[in-house]
Every structure is written in C-alpha cells, then in structure tokens.
C-alpha cells in the first residue's frame, strides 16, 4: 500500500489531466468519460478498502494488547489510552488519518467533479454552437 499523502499528490495531478477539457479534446473526453468515472470510483473503493484494513489492524493491535499485556484486566479504553504512548500505535493512527483524508478527497472528486462533468461537456458544446452562429 502506497503512502496516502503521495497518492493524494499523484491523484490530484491525474484528476487535473482527466478533467482538462477544451475545444481540441472535447470529443475524446466525452467518449472516455465513462471509463474515467469508473477508474476514479474504483480507486475510491480501493482507498476505502485500505482504510478498513488499517482500522482492522488497529483493532487487532488493541485486542492483542488486551489478551497478552493485560495482567490487571484493564478495560479497552484504558488500554487504548496506554497505547497512545506506543510509537507503532501512534504511527498506525497517523496512517489511518491520512487514509481518511485520501478517502474524503476521492469521495469529493467522484461525487462532485466527475458527476458534474457531463454539464461541462454540454456547456462547452453550447458555447461552440453559439460561436459558430
């Protein structure tokens, strides 16, 4: 799994290329629009799957601590508080937050940018029609 912040940068540049529409590439972009929407929806699902995996890893980490390193039978919340000082646990929490940010970014891209791109095509075609009159 790649680092979420690196993916965010890569995806931002890719989305910029995928949404760059002008007179010279209008037909090409219209024809490839379903493919592009599917590509980004799939990437969104991949990032959500990776987020779920990270959260499962965190839960397993807590569960193992409760089972193995808990001679006083402390509660899960106390164990979680104790784990806040653990470097591996902190790193895992940071990765989860970064992955959540990536999911949010892709969710906005898929649900806002790519769902509205059809209107951009329509508006550009209408503009071209008006210019040719």
Structure description:
With 133 residues, the chain is mainly alpha-helical. It has one domain. 84% of the residues lie in helices and 0% in strands. It has four helices and no strands. Helix 1 (4-18) runs parallel beside helix 4 and helix 2 runs antiparallel to helix 4 (87-132). The longest helix is centred in the last third of the chain and has 46 residues, at 87-132. The radius of gyration is 22 Å and the shape is rod-shaped. The protein starts with a helix and ends with a helix.
From the structure above, extract its key features.
single chain; 133 residues; mainly alpha
Structural class: mainly alpha
Number of strands: 0
> Overall mean pLDDT score?
88
Radius of gyration: 22 Å
The best one-word shape is rod-shaped
Q: Termini, distance in Å?
A: 53 Å
Low-confidence stretches: none
Helix content: over 70%
Task: Describe the sheet with the most strands.
Answer: none
Oligomer, anyone?
single chain
Q: Indicate how many domains the architecture comprises.
A: 1
Provide a count of the helices. 4
Please report which band the strand proportion falls in: under 5%, 5-15%, 15-25%, 25-35%, 35-45% or over 45%: under 5%
**String of helices and strands:** HHHH
């Amino acid at each position: 799994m790649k680092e979420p912040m690196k993916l965010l940068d890569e995806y931002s540049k890719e989305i910029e290329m995928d949404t760059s529409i002008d007179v010279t590439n209008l037909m090409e972009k219209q024809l490839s629009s379903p493919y592009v929407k599917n590509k980004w929806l799939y990437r969104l699902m991949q990032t959500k799957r990776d987020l779920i995996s990270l959260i499962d890893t965190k839960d397993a980490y807590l569960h193992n601590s409760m089972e193995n390193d808990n001679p006083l039978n402390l509660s899960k919340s106390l164990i979680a508080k104790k784990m806040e000082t653990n470097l591996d646990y902190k790193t895992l929490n940071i990765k989860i937050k970064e992955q959540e940010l990536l999911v949010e970014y892709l969710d906005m891209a898929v649900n806002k940018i790519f769902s509205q791109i059809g209107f951009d095509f329509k508006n550009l075609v209408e503009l071209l029609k008006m210019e040719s009159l």
